[in-house]
Design brief:
InterPro entries: PAPS_reduct_dom, Rossmann-like_a/b/a_fold, Sulfate_adenylyltrnsfr_sub2. This is Phosphoadenosine phosphosulphate reductase domain-containing protein. There is one protein chain. The strands form 4 sheets. Strands 5-8-7-6 form a 4-stranded mixed beta sheet, with no helix packed on it. It has a two-stranded parallel ribbon with strand order 1-2. The protein has a two-stranded antiparallel ribbon with strand order 3-4. The chain starts with a strand and ends with a strand. It is globular and about 55 Å long. It has 2 domains: 160 residues, 3-Layer(aba) Sandwich (Rossmann fold); 79 residues, no CATH class. Helix 2 runs parallel beside helix 8 and helix 7 crosses helix 8. The protein has 254 residues and is α/β, with parallel strands linked by helices. Helix 1 links the parallel strand 1 and strand 2.
Amino acid sequence: MPFELMHNLTTADAPQTVYYVREQFQKAEQAGISCSINKPYYKGQRITMWSLIPMKMIPPTRTVRYCCEILKESGGTGRFILTGVRWAESRKRRNSRGIYENFVPNGKARAVILNNDNDDTRRLFEACFSRSKHVCNPIIDWSDQDVWEYIRSEKIPMNPLYEMGFYRVGCIGCPMAGKQRYREFQIFPTYERAYRHAFAKMLDLRKKAGRQCDSRIWGNVDAFFRWWMEDPGIPGQYELSFHEDTNEIYYDYL
């Protein structure tokens, strides 16, 4: 069956991931397989993670994951997509509601599913009518051992980050990585500087727009970065959520 390879460039991927994708795409193209790298756009203009944060005027968090939708979800319109999403990557994934799930513009439970975010409610087959694409997760019931045994038996080239001890490969600094982010920023300090620079622009824009928040956390870049890293030593630590339709921010103190 004819197929093509597609990669959505998030702009926050590790250099090893970028080089790995390029190398594998080059080999695939030499074998006659069509490959494409989708660069992110937002409101008609090219963006990066670092320009998106000031535009949104809020950071990406565990509950506010606009970056996944904009940087990772835009590709694949009009196609049938295969992913590597697995239930084993989440504690709740085995309690899924069924095999087939529809994407609908409305409907609270179904609208939150993102094509690449390894959400707990992922299914073997999914359809996204709003984006005119269907998704199949062929290894959704595979365990970690199943994956590694298949990789070794088929001698599949791996992203070198796994050889460096990474257990997940995604955007550097992704809040879903938890404390792993400290190690990521030790290895890739340029990315921490990029986030800090983006946060500085964001805080400045919020101040000019009259949307400043708790000064203990939003008062300077260092304090805000520590809050974003979920540093438990910050007074008044809270969880942030964002309503896209009203552009309002909500806080839950932890």
